[in-house]
Specification:
Strand content: 5-15%
Order of helices and strands: EHHEHEHHHHHHHHEE
Strand order of the largest sheet: 2-1-3
Largest sheet: 3 strands, antiparallel
Number of domains: 2
Radius of gyration: 19 Å
Distance between the termini: 34 Å
Shape: globular
Helix content: 40-55%
Length: 258
């Protein structure tokens, strides 16, 4: 994940900022001080944080120090969008598809959020984007992989609301759409309302949710979700699709009521 700090209030404790940067990035003292100086000079400053939960903690602690940031799944410079139809086939082993095998994901859905498996799946998704291989990965995925991506999507919708991070929500929707197969995919359809509800709770519009995914993956991938949006409000509600807003020991969580 990439953290970009773009706004700040009056920062009173420069030392605390430097310590926080070192704690979450592993940078040496000299480099951490340089990054702190850039932030305080009102320069946009970016960090790469491998793990989702670490990135979220980093954002939260910097916010407490008066520094606002945002998280993205990949930098714009790392993503090129174009025709991938003539690209070489994806090597499932190289792409890390092993973490998507149902056999190693028994009872994954109800586990506490987050887990290490969440981060491992995230890395597969980020690699897919960074390697410009969205279309090839879509073709290479098996039905069993799709079921694990659906579980990941449901978990990320809950985590996004819990931590108030829209990028987590986008990654969950990206995973869900990557595993979606026409003409119908009832299991995925039942999960779509979570993303509408979560976006509302995060205060972001449908366009704000979808536009970054459109840039990365194109209109065809997000097409099923766009069709879902055409349903009546009743037919795309949490209640009709069998979910409730609830909570577990970790905080907010969507739970099935069927």
């Amino acid at each position: 994940m990439f953290i970009k700090f773009t706004g700040w209030k009056t920062v009173k404790d420069k030392v605390a900022v430097t310590k926080t940067i070192r704690q979450y990035t592993g940078l040496g003292l000299a480099e951490a001080k340089k990054r702190t100086d850039r932030i305080l000079a009102r320069e946009i400053t970016e960090f790469e944080i491998p793990e989702l939960h670490t990135a979220e903690d980093f954002l939260g602690n910097m916010k407490l120090l008066g520094i606002e940031g945002k998280m993205s799944m990949i930098t714009a410079e790392s993503v090129s969008v174009g025709d991938q139809s003539n690209s070489q086939a994806v090597n499932p082993t190289k792409m890390g598809f092993g973490v998507l095998e149902p056999a190693v994901n028994q009872a994954y859905l109800p586990k506490p959020i987050p887990t290490e498996r969440d981060n491992e799946i995230l890395q597969v998704l980020v690699s897919c984007i960074a390697d410009n291989s969205v279309a090839r990965v879509y073709q290479a995925l098996k039905p069993g992989h799709a079921s694990v991506l659906q579980a990941y999507a449901e978990r990320m919708a809950s985590l996004a609301v819990r931590n108030q991070i829209p990028e987590t929500l986008r990654m969950g929707l990206f995973a869900l759409l990557l595993g979606y197969r026409e003409p119908s995919n009832r299991e995925a359809l039942t999960i779509f309302p979570l993303f509408l509800d979560a976006a509302q709770m995060l205060g972001i519009s449908t366009s704000e949710l979808l536009d970054p995914l459109r840039v990365i993956a194109g209109d065809s991938l997000i097409g099923p979700f766009m069709k879902f949006l055409n349903r009546s409000d009743e037919n795309k509600s949490l209640r009709v699709m069998g979910y409730d807003r609830s909570a577990d020991q970790g905080g907010f969580r969507y739970l099935r009521n069927w």
